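hey can u check if this looks right to u? its 681 residues, i copy pasted from the old doc so theres a chance i mangled smth
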Amino acid sequence: MRITRCLVLAAAMGLQSACTLLASDWDWPSLLVAPEGAATDSPSVLMIHSEQTKYLSQSKSNDSFVWRHNDSLSALSQMAAYQITYDPALGSTRQYADLSGSFFKKIKNGGGAQLGLEWAPTLVFSQNDSIGGQLTTLEAGPSGKFALLNIPVTARSGIAARTLNNQIPSHVFQTHLADYFSDVGYYGGLQVAGNRLPFSLFPLYGGASLYGRRLGGVTTASALGGLMGMASLYKEDSIFAGIADSFSSGSQISPDGKSHFVAAPQTIGQTLTADAVLRPATRLHCAPLVFYEYSQQSQRYRDQQFSFSDVQNYNHAIAASLTTDSLIPVEYRGRIRFDNGGYDRLFTRTFKQGSILQQPQTAVESSLVQQYTAQLDDYNLFKVNLEQHLASFTKTGTGIAYDYTITRTSKTYPHFYLQYVSADSNALKRNDNDNDRIYERHQILLVPLAFPRFKFELSGSLTKNTTSYVRGENSGQNSIDRMYRLGAALSVAPSPRVFISEKTNADTKVTSYNFPQFHIGKYPPYSRTFSSAFAFRYEFSPQWSCKGEWNETYWDEGVWKTRVYLDTTGLNADSLAAAFYNEYQIDRKNLTTDVSLSVQCKPSARMAFQVGSSFGDNYYREFSAGRYVVNSLGKGYTIIPFFIAQLQWGNYCSFVPKIRRIIDTIADDYWDLSIVLDMQW
C-alpha cells in the first residue's frame, strides 16, 4: 500500500489540498484509506475460471463458475467452485467444493430494501495413503438488506448442519466408517458496510461485521470493526486517525464460517490496530509527516494440550519523515522510525520472576516447569531505523543518487527462574540470547551517460551487519559481516527494432569474529559471486520478434585463513613461522549457465504465441581429499522447450496455456503444464 493512498482519502473527503504527497515508497497505513462506499448491485454476469497446473508429480486444479442475474425485481447469484490438489509422491489428495448462492426480492418503494434466502453448502475431503477425513457443512436461511441512516446493513440467519469423519480408511467402500458424527445448529450474521457516518460533523467512516454459529456444542464467532476519520487543521494541515479490531473464536474463524480444513483446534484470536498521521502542509518546498501506530495480535487455544502455543505480539511505532518537492534541484527523502514491542508466550498467565521451582513430582509441578520454560522465550524488542536519500538527475537521465540506511534491533529476554538442585544450590534458568543487531548500508548509483538509445550505469554498495550478544554465555558468537558489491549496466537500442542490455555484478561477503580466541581452528567464512545477465530483442515486423537471454553466475565459498585463528597446538617456533596465513581457501564453487531463445508471433492485438527453449548447466565442485570433486547435484544438463499462448476473445474470455518439457540428462524428464481460462458475460 503506497503512501499515495493519501490522495484517495483526501479526494474522497473533498480535501485534496490538505494532502501533499510524498514521492516515496514508504507505506501509508491501509487503515487510513477511505472506503469506496456501499457496493452497487452488479449487472447480470456469467464468469467461468479454470486453472490447471502440473509440476513434477503434483497436479492442481482450480475451477469456478459464477452466475449473477440482476434486474429491477430480483437478484440471483449462484457459485460453483471446485479445487483439487493431487500429489502421488505423498499419496495425498485434497478437495474442496463450494455451492454458495443467494436470491433476493427487491421491495418496491422500500428504499433499496431486499429480502431473500442464502445457502452455502461446502465439502472438504482430504486423504493420504492410509487415512483421510471428510467435512460437509450447510448453512441456509433468510437474509435481508436495508439501509439504516443511509448506511447499508445486511442481516442473515438460519440453520447450520455438519457431518464430519476424521478417519476415512483408504478403501472407503470396503471398510466401515469410523468416528463419524453429524450435528445440527444455527447461525446468524450482521454486516454494516463501510460508509461515511451521517451523524458526524467531519469525515468519519465506519464498518463492522458479526458472525456466530452454534453447532455440536461448540460456538464459533467472529467480529470485525473499524473506524477512520480525518480533520483539517490550520492552513491546510491535516490529521488522520483510525482504529480496527477483530475477534474470532472457534475452529473455523473466517467471517463467513467456511473452512478448507477437515479439523482444527479451537482457538481465540484478536487483532487490534490503531493509526494516526499528522500531515502538515508543504512549506519551503518540504513535506513533513508524523506517524504513530499500535498493533497487537494474540492467539490462544482452548484445548489444554495446545495451551503452550498461546502467544501475543504487540508493537508501538512512531515515525517522522521529510521530503522535498520537484522545485528543489536535489531530491531528498528522509525518515526515522522507532519500534517498541514484544513477544509474550502464555500471555494469560503470570510469571513470578525469580521463583524457585522444585524438581517436578506431580503432573501439576511438571506443567508449571513446562510453563516457565516456555515463557523464557518472551522478549522485549526495541528497533530504530533511519533512511536517507539524496539524488540529482538531469532531464536526459544523467546524475547521481545516494542512499543510506541504518537499523538497530535489540532483543532482551527478561524472564528467569531458579531450578531447585539442593538445599544449598539452585540452577539459574534463563534465555541467554539477548542481542543487538546493527544493519548499515551505503548505496550509490552513478549514471554518467544517458541518451534516448544508450544508457550506462555504475553502482556500488557496502553493507555491514554487526551482531552482538549481550550476555557472556553467547558473546563468543559476536561477529561482523561485510558485503561489498560493484555493478555496471549497459542498455543500447541501435534502432527502434533492436534492444541490447548487459548487467554485471561482483559481490563479496567477509565475516570476522569479535573474539577470535573462541574460534581457534575455525576460520571465518568468505564468499564471492560474479554474475552476468545479457539480453537482446529484435523485431522482424510488428507481428514477429525474437528475444534471447544469457545468464552466467559464478559463486564460491570457503574460509579466510588468517594467523589469528590458527591452532598452534603442537607447533614449534619454526613450524609457527612457516605457517601460512591470509589465504582464501575455497571449499566449494559453482558455475551456473542459463541460455534461452524464443520467437514470438503476435498476429493481432488479442492473440500472441511464444515458442522457444532454454539450456541450463550447473557446474558444482567440492574440495575433498586435496582436490575438487565433481558433484552434479543430480541435474546435469537441462533443456526446457516451452510454448505459451495468450488468446483473448472480446472483453469476455481469455485463454492462456503454458507447456514446458523439462529434459534432464540425469534426472527423470517431466512435463510442466498450466492452463488458465477466464470467461465473463
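The chain is about 5% helix and 65% strand.
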